[in-house]
Amino acid sequence: MSLVFAIFTPVIAALLIPLLYKRVSAIHTGWFVLLIPVALVSLYATYIPPIIDGTTYKDELPWIPSLGLSFISYLDGLSLLFSLLITGIGALVVLYSIFYLDKKKEKLGNFYVYLLLFMSAMLGVVQSDHLISLYFFWELTSISSFLLIGYWYTKDRSRFGALKSMMITVFGGLMMLGGFVILGILGDTYSIRELIAQAPDLVDHKFFVWALVLVLLGAFTKSAQFPFYIWLPDAMEAPTPVSAYLHSATMVKAGLYLVARFTPIFALSEVWVWLVTGIGILTLLWGSFFAVKQTDLKAILAFSTVSQLGLIMSLLGIGSIAYHVTGDLVTTFTFATFAAIFHLMNHATFKGSLFMIAGIVDHETGTRDIRKLGGLMSLMPISFTIALIGSLSMAGVPPFNGFLSKEMFLDAVLNLKNFDLHALDSWWILFPIIAWIASVFTFVYSLYFVFHTFRGKHKPEQLPKAAHEAPVGMLLSPGILASLVVIIFFVPNFFGNTFIKPAVAAIQPLAYQVPADVGFTIKAWHGFDSLAMYMTLGVFLVGYLLFKTIPKWSPIYKTFPTKLSLNGMYDGLMRLGDSGANRFSSIYMTGSIRSYFVYMFTAIIVLLGGTMWIKDAFVISYENLAPIRFFEILISIILIVGTITILVTKSRLTAIIALGAVGYTVALFYILFKAPDLALTQLVIETVSVALFLGAFYHLPQMNKHEKGKEDRGFRLGNFLIALGVGVMVTLIAISSHSQKLIPSISEYYKETVYSEAGGGNIVNVILVDYRGFDTLFEISVLTIASLGIIGMITLRLAKKKGDRKVENK
Amino acid sequence: MTTFLWVIVVLIGVSLLGFLYRLVKGPTTPDRVIALDAIGVGLIALIGLISILFDTGFFLEVILLLAVLSFIGTVAFSKFTEKGEIIQRDRNS
């Protein structure tokens, strides 16, 4: 089976789901769906042994070959680890959802179609070697995530959360596309492999940092880093299997994947190191601090996810320092990468199980509000055990896997002291301090999550349902994950050798050729000389004290003003975009045609005048000018007087008559310039137009409808200036174009051939019907359309408007 | 001969200006309509002169047309000033 086909398997299967859902209603649709991730996880498992040996696999499906666009599935340690996470946890989530979602009440067809679409998209993201196809799958995850968050679309909060996550992740996705395009242009290739190979040549280019920042924006929005994490807590309105799958284990790690994947390209720049590390550690602190404030079980977990993602992000940042050092220090910093991938795996296990437990609590008690819950330990002992394992692992307590990765995290942060770039010697200490404080808060919210739910006083009167243990099927998936949490603690090096080392070798290709070169072993016990151990002990001690005194210090959360919070800013920004755009368009779109004319004429003056001025095109030449005759002066005076009359007259009838006079004078000009056909036509047309004006005269309103009785249009300086400007402009252009004629006229040809070729004496008419008869044909069409239109307007009066003035010719 | 013709052209031009003054000044609509009619006649004369001056027969059609139009226009204006409309629907009124 080809690897590209494997990516698309879930989507192809998704096509069949609605059919199965409709036809086979006796069996829960989830059972059919379950086959797909199980099949895929077994497929990917067969790749584990060769990948450990350092083999990589590549499979290509051309998409648009002429543009060099293809779906490339590239499987190395990193993408294999993610693929296994996606399919493995996908299988567990589908199993869980079978028991979580009701067969009759829920629209299961929709749910599983979205879920499978998402699974394909995620597999595509982690296996794509082509930047554009990576972006394609990236947006597909955003869209399927939007659909899944808004699954209960009748709820306002769901729709709000779906829209918010869509806005933020698509914003980041578009930024990322920009970064990709810059990269593709710089490297002249869209293949990530080839870009990595030529990264040292790209790093000094001035647009390199742009690409870096834009790609990071994509990663930060997707992975819910500061300040873009705000969509994640609102995405908790999704069904719990979705939260467990997308918002803890897979989609939010797409950003981490992106950072890890692009480390070999961007880590050569210091901007990358500090942005990734700094934002990561800030997110870690921020998320862990605000997790204690939450009262909703899933909101606690959401903030905890944010915080843990920040932890992994900062570890990836520290790991990328390895590109800036030499010798033994390379190993010191690649250790951070190792820790990052290890924690990424651990987080997927314990956070997935915790989300499922939160879902079980919700399912069995009817609420997720931690203030109403309590004392469920004896009622739900198995859930309690799983929750305890997950929480303690999250808090970093032995004997669970979180402890191992947390220790490695503290070690890695302490290693920063060895990096002496940019006078870090005094500032590096900030990182361990922040990491330690964040670990304390992590400890506090982990205990808060499990003990405030399962210990304390049981309050049955506040619960919508009587609490009892969940069915076995529901507990199966979190149980498997929780047992993994424990198993990883006891045999960490098996997982390290199998999954982590190939991934580290993929992220740090300069340091390691094959996964076997990665020489780290995970130890639960570091000995008494390890500073990290004392820090962990301090975390336990201070964390426990803080946990016991939560009611005493929690009011500090209330001092934080809502308006200044990031959510407040997001809402404000959305409102501003909405009402601001409205206000802007209502300012300039007045609905009055007068102002639109002002815009258009001003544009003529500014654009034409500006172009002429910039190009220095104003030329006045006195060559080729005909002598001015007395007669022409006379007619011009008449023309000017008539025009001014139209402008200044107070009566409309006078204006119409003066317009007629102007038309006749123009006809006189035609005669003077020897154009008898034009003069004939002009006279007839002018007469007809004047007659039409007169016909419409009776129905026209007064000239100035705002001042009844006073038929004065008034004088507006702005209009006068614009009119003057347009007139001057057109005159100047006419003079300039006459002064610099570049091409001779073609009329000589017509003169010579009018009789010999076309057999006519009237050159104008021959041009109209012979040389250029096409124009005439369509002028005839115009007249036909106009007359038909007039008939239509007069006779077809479909809608009678209210208060329409009755038009009666009397 | 040519000088004589040009003098006439100037005279007609001056009279056209006079008609135009009446057209602009008014004071009533019939004054303006008469002025327009006179302008039409003036134009006819002018075009005739120009035809002679240019030594061409192509503009004689224009003279005919102008005469017809001037007549139709004046009638239309007159009818309009009298009844407020040009083409009646109810022919009995």
UniProtKB/TrEMBL annotation, chain A:
It is a multi-pass membrane protein. Keywords: Antiport, Cell membrane, Hydrogen ion transport, Ion transport, Membrane, Sodium, Sodium transport, Transmembrane, Transmembrane helix, Transport. GO terms for molecular function: antiporter activity. The keyword Transmembrane helix applies. Residues 637-702 form the MrpA C-terminal/MbhD domain. Residues 128-419 form the NADH:quinone oxidoreductase/Mrp antiporter transmembrane domain. The chain crosses the membrane at residues 6-24, 31-52, 72-99, 111-128, 134-154, 166-187, 207-232, 244-266, 272-292, 299-323, 335-361, 373-395, 427-451, 472-491, 531-547, 596-614, 626-648, 655-673, 679-700, 720-739, 780-799. One of its GO terms (biological process) is proton transmembrane transport. GO terms for cellular component: plasma membrane. It is found in: Cell membrane; Membrane. Residues 716-793 form the MrpA C-terminal/MbhE domain. This is Na+/H+ antiporter subunit A. Residues 65-111 form the NADH-Ubiquinone oxidoreductase (complex I) chain 5 N-terminal domain. Belongs to the CPA3 antiporters (TC 2.A.63) subunit A family. Pfam families: MbhD (PF13244), MbhE (PF20501), Proton_antipo_M (PF00361), Proton_antipo_N (PF00662). Coiled coil: none annotated.
UniProtKB/TrEMBL annotation, chain B:
This is Na(+)/H(+) antiporter subunit F1. It holds the Pfam family MrpF_PhaF. The chain crosses the membrane at residues 6-24, 33-52, 58-77. InterPro entries: MrpF/PhaF-like. It comes from Psychrobacillus vulpis. Keywords: Antiport, Cell membrane, Ion transport, Membrane, Transmembrane, Transmembrane helix, Transport. One of its GO terms (molecular function) is sodium:proton antiporter activity. The keyword Transmembrane helix applies. Its main location: membrane. The keyword Protein transport does not apply. It is a multi-pass membrane protein. Belongs to the CPA3 antiporters (TC 2.A.63) subunit F family. One of its GO terms (cellular component) is plasma membrane. It is found in: Cell membrane.
